[in-house]
């Protein structure tokens, strides 16, 4: 259940109650693709890093270790030692990124495993069954992720099919939640708005999926190469057509500046591999901008990565030490860097929530939207 606590323009400060705890929104969901954050960061670390929600990948967990095995072992929460909410994506993005290896039909998609090449079929029902076995807090609907730019003549029938798939997802999720052996019989379902960069398709699709009265709604098919101005425009377009009393989730976004602009346009939830991926290459987010710790100028620098940060890494270690670990190829360098970036993103969301509560978000946006995405 979503409760809107305060609104500033289109920006929303809310609470999202789930069976695994209440999420303070806006929130960033840290990406643990195969039930683990890349960079050797544990579920216990994530609590210290102020993580509220972890996101796991349906496609990857279906292939390895197998969703049926995770079901037998009590579900994802028990499997990975994480008690807070988990969102699982539907596998759609991975399936549709396997260009040349997949065939789309009304029933679903046949594709080849990236691990061993074996043929796999996934449709709305199969995606719901896998996510039910995983027992995540929130399951995402199975949809088609199109590449941009795309012709209107392709996007329209794709949207229509995604809607038909969503209807099937809702029916299958209701059936699964009623089964006696489910590890999470209260699993939620989020629908996904598609339509490329075409306003009329986005609006039509938003209206249709809103009428299904789902637990939440995502905006998908953005941040796939289109200019950020186009993404912001589409968010502004769909804002008034998505239910006010349900959480909104912008999938796969993004930089700190993207997140601030997304909140400005009414988005509540975000996810992206960027903080962990960038950290593993030494690119660290700070309140002064993005710092490349590999630069020689940090060789003798005794300051923390970010003097304004109180993450476990910044409390204990210098820029010189982190740079040394990267230069020496020590995995500890990646771990400490990932911990810093995840903490930065989670505290960014805290500061956004505070600014919304205090009525200062417009000034916060003006101060940080460009700065945080700028390389030092």
TrEMBL record:
State the residue spans of region: RNA binding: 252-258
Any Gene Ontology biological process: tRNA queuosine(34) biosynthetic process
Q: Where does Zn(2+) bind?
A: 309, 311, 314, 340
Tell me which UniProt keywords the record has, alphabetically. Glycosyltransferase, Metal-binding, Queuosine biosynthesis, Transferase, tRNA processing, Zinc
Where along the chain is substrate bound? 89-93, 143, 194, 221
| Assembly description | Homodimer. Within each dimer, one monomer is responsible for RNA recognition and catalysis, while the other monomer binds to the replacement base PreQ1.
Q: Which family does it belong to?
A: Belongs to the queuine tRNA-ribosyltransferase family.
Q: What is this protein called?
A: Queuine tRNA-ribosyltransferase
Q: What species is this protein from?
A: Bittarella massiliensis (ex Durand et al. 2017)
Organismal lineage: Bacteria, Bacillati, Bacillota, Clostridia, Eubacteriales
């Amino acid at each position: 259940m979503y409760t809107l606590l305060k609104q500033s323009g289109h920006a929303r400060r809310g609470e999202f109650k789930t069976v695994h705890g209440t999420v303070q929104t806006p929130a960033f969901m840290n990406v643990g693709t195969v039930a683990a954050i890349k960079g050797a960061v544990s579920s216990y670390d994530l609590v210290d890093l102020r993580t509220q929600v972890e996101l796991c990948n349906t496609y990857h967990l279906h292939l390895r270790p197998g969703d049926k095995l995770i079901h037998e072992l009590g579900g994802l929460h028990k499997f990975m030692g994480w008690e807070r909410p988990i969102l699982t994506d539907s596998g759609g993005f991975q399936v549709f990124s396997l260009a040349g290896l997949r065939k789309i039909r009304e029933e679903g998609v046949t594709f080849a495993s990236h691990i061993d090449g074996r043929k796999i079929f996934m449709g709305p029902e199969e995606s719901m069954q896998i996510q039910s076995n995983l027992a995540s807090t929130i399951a995402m609907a199975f949809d088609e992720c199109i590449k941009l730019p795309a012709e209107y003549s392709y996007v329209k029938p794709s949207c229509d099919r995604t809607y038909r798939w969503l209807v099937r997802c809702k029916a299958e999720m209701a059936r699964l939640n009623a089964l006696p052996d489910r590890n999470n019989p209260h699993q939620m379902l989020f629908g996904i708005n598609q339509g490329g960069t075409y306003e009329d398709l986005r609006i039509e699709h938003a209206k249709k999926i809103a009428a299904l009265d789902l637990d939440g709604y995502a905006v998908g098919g953005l941040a796939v190469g289109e200019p950020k101005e186009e993404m912001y425009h589409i968010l502004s377009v769909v804002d008034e057509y998505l239910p006010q009393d349900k959480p909104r989730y912008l999938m796969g976004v993004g930089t700190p500046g993207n997140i601030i602009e997304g909140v400005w346009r009414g988005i509540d939830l975000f996810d992206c591999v960027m903080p962990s991926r960038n950290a593993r290459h030494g690119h660290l987010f700070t309140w002064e901008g993005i710092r490349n710790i590999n630069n020689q100028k940090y060789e003798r620098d005794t300051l923390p990565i970010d003097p304004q940060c109180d993450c476990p890494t910044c409390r204990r270690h210098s820029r010189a030490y982190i740079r040394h670990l990267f230069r020496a190829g020590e995995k500890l360098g990646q771990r400490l860097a990932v911990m810093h970036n995840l903490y930065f993103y989670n505290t960014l969301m805290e500061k956004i929530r505070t600014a919304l509560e205090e009525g200062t978000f417009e000034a916060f946006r003006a101060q940080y939207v460009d700065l945080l995405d700028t390389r030092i």
